[in-house]
UniProtKB/TrEMBL annotation, chain A:
This is Outer membrane lipid asymmetry maintenance protein MlaD. NCBIfam families: OM_asym_MlaD. It comes from the Bacteria. The gene is mlaD. The chain crosses the membrane at residues 6-26. PANTHER family: INTERMEMBRANE PHOSPHOLIPID TRANSPORT SYSTEM BINDING PROTEIN MLAD, INTERMEMBRANE PHOSPHOLIPID TRANSPORT SYSTEM BINDING PROTEIN MLAD-RELATED. Residues 38-116 form the Mce/MlaD domain. Keywords: Membrane, Transmembrane, Transmembrane helix.
Length: 155, 262
């Protein structure tokens, strides 16, 4: 086989590999949901994160408006502190509330934003005041058991 | 009847030999890496090896990937339909392919298809005293023979693994969506929801690069150290398949534990 022909086939081979990787990243993976749009950061404190993970989606009315950038622990307030990367084209009133929700019964946890009514918008580096922690199934069950035991006592 | 003294020294000799063998293997790897600078200047040799190792393995890799995808689709559908979550089929197929099956099965096939031919080629070169003749002509056989084959294998393996995963996902789609009739939107969207580019696709790619290095080195070392007889070459070829398959499976466990451990 001549040199040029070998080079052609090798080039085709490597190109096929690149196409396969791009296919895996875009079609099978979540590369297409990577956005390089400008973002601003907002912080929120929670009593309990549940199973929230970094890069979990931030949704408002079901639309993905950002991602969880980092999760830390505030040693002064003894609360979890979550930093959110919100896309700059989505602005929210400064009294919006942030809650940790679960998609479906057993799905992944994500953050939901419910817009408030204030005229001022959330700025870069600001902190959200109104937050609602994740619902922990064990706590719910123990509350239910406690209250039902209490009602039996009254009878 | 051998004395206990003989038994113990035989055990000691065996341990020493295996350590010596490991040392020789590592030194050959080091020698290949140290002489790689020249290979980059003579890219033609590497590209010939990529063609020989990669292009010729493409068909078996693609066909195997397709059938692994088919089987994954059928088998996982059977389990998932019991829980009424057939839409997760795409996620299951794509995750198992990108994380584990793509790199590992490709590496096993690669050892059988390309590793053996490398070992046999170098072993026969040695048996025909071509390597010795090169040295007489002041051509370094490691630089001229081993280095291009090493880089050819290292470049070809990740490409083959990526093709395997892609064809496998398409195979899963053929069975799940075309034959069984799962909703295509749910099939793809669940897959995109669950497969992370960095965690899954990139880690699978890193795995395939490591397997490429391991299999190619084992194959080259087996050929390089083969005894210069027909029997020696046949034994070296067998050793390539056994050792590189075991090495791939062992490395896969270690890397899975490191990458997806938590």
């Amino acid at each position: 086989m001549t040199r040029d022909k070998t080079d052609f086939w090798v080039g085709l081979f490597v190109l096929l590999g690149a196409i396969a990787l791009i296919f895996l990243a875009l079609r099978a993976g979540n590369m297409s949901s990577f956005s390089f749009a400008p973002t601003y950061q907002v912080q929120a404190h929670f009593d309990n994160l549940g199973g929230l993970k970094v890069r979990a989606p931030v949704k408002s009315s079901g639309v993905v408006v950002g991602r969880v950038a980092s999760i830390g622990f505030d040693n002064e307030r003894f609360q979890a502190v979550v930093t959110l990367d919100l896309e700059s084209r989505y602005q929210f009133p400064s009294d919006s509330s942030v809650s940790i929700l679960t998609s479906g019964l057993l799905g992944e946890q994500y953050i939901g934003i419910t817009p408030g009514g204030e005229d001022k918008m959330l700025a870069d580096g600001s902190t959200v005041q109104y937050t609602q922690s994740a619902v922990v199934l064990e706590e719910l069950i123990s509350k239910f058991l406690y209250s039902s035991a209490g009602s039996q006592d009254q009878q | 009847m051998s004395t206990p003294f003989e038994l113990i020294s035989r055990l000691g000799a065996r341990v020493r030999k295996s350590i010596t063998g490991l040392g020789a293997f590592m030194r050959l790897g080091g020698a290949i890496l140290a002489r790689s600078g020249a290979a980059l200047r003579r890219a033609r040799l590497v590209s010939q090896q990529v063609h020989f190792i990669g292009n010729h393995s493409l068909l078996i890799i693609a066909v195997s990937g397709l059938f692994v995808g088919f089987v994954l689709g059928l088998q996982n559908y059977y389990t998932l339909s019991r829980y009424g979550s057939e839409e997760a089929l795409g996620l299951l197929v794509a995750l198992s392919l990108t994380r584990e099956l793509g790199p590992v099965v490709t590496a096993l096939l690669f050892a059988g298809r390309a590793g053996t031919s490398l070992t046999a080629e170098i072993g026969l070169m040695k048996a025909g005293e071509q390597l010795a003749a090169m040295e007489v002509m002041a051509v370094d056989p490691i630089r001229r023979v081993l280095v291009p084959r090493f880089w050819g294998g290292v470049i070809a393996m990740p490409v083959l693994a990526a093709v395997f995963s892609m064809v496998g996902v398409i195979g899963g789609w053929v069975v799940g969506v075309l034959l069984i009739g799962i909703d295509p939107g749910a099939f793809w969207s669940q897959m995109q929801e669950g497969v992370d580019v960095i965690n899954d696709v990139l880690n699978g790619f890193i795995k395939s690069v490591v397997f490429g290095i391991a299999v190619t080195l084992v194959a080259l070392h087996a050929g390089w150290t083969a005894r210069a007889t027909p029997e020696g070459v046949s034994r070296a070829t067998t050793r390539t398949v056994v050792h590189s398959s075991l090495l791939v499976l062992g490395l896969d466990f270690v890397m899975t534990a490191l990458m997806f451990g938590n």
